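Checklist before submission:
- one chain only
- standard amino acids only
- sequence pasted in full

Submission:
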Amino acid sequence: MVNEVIGPWETEEDETPPDVQSPDIQAPSIDDAITDYFTYLTGFIPTPDQAGMLKSIIHYDRVEASAGRQSGKTLTASVATMYLAYEFDVPLRILMISPQDNQVYAYMRGFFRGEHREEFTKDLVGSKSVQNIVPLTGFQLGDGTQVKVCGVTERDIRGFPADVVIIDEAALVSNQSILTAMGNLSGEASKLILLSTPVHNPLINTPGEPKFMKWLRDPDYKVFHWSSADLPWHNKRLLDIKRKEFTPAHWASEVLGREPTDDEVSNSGDVIGEVIFTTVPVTRRR
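Returned file contents:
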């Protein structure tokens, strides 16, 4: 399911985006360039959902992908970061935020140490040895492009002006940190890209609702949903076990990659426990 968004280029007469979305970022001549780049980097063909999400970052300023566990979200975010850094004709400042930044680091190390390492390292600022390049916290290119990879605290995020902010597992990132990251965006080409497995907290209408969950229902965002159950690398037998053991709300969010319905929440046997343990602080006895 995709929430169609009217972009700044669209009118009732012409709904075709131009080659150039804004003066700051020049889009490739064909959208397939970014999906081809996914295969170039990883050796895999992106799923239709991954391809759709990757293409959307060319033409939209605000994009969300809501997907099940182990569905390639962090890999997709990492490929998008490398594509924006290396394939655009203008230098960009890219802020990549993730609560599992160690996984992002692993992908980055793989890209820089893989078969294309000479291409990726030749323009790095401060590079001394191809074999020793491990951009744990990001990298800078000779044309001025900067990539910062960081965790999710406000201290991690502050102080880096960005053209593009990519937030991995955004449902697990605090609203304040997300707003801080948005505050870092500047320029006409500012893009905010969020990927996550949705949460199944039943208190979805409280002031503490994650921004990621709220924006899934915002028509100003281009939203993608994809399910882990449809992916070939998931064992069908294990999926059957999960279907049996998970509550309806857990199955909807963790596997199907969507926000649970009210009925699924009410039919989940652990709702009371979730309410207690996610909203009431525990005071230890002395």
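Reviewer check: Residues 1-24, 202-206, 270-286 have pLDDT under 50 and may be disordered.
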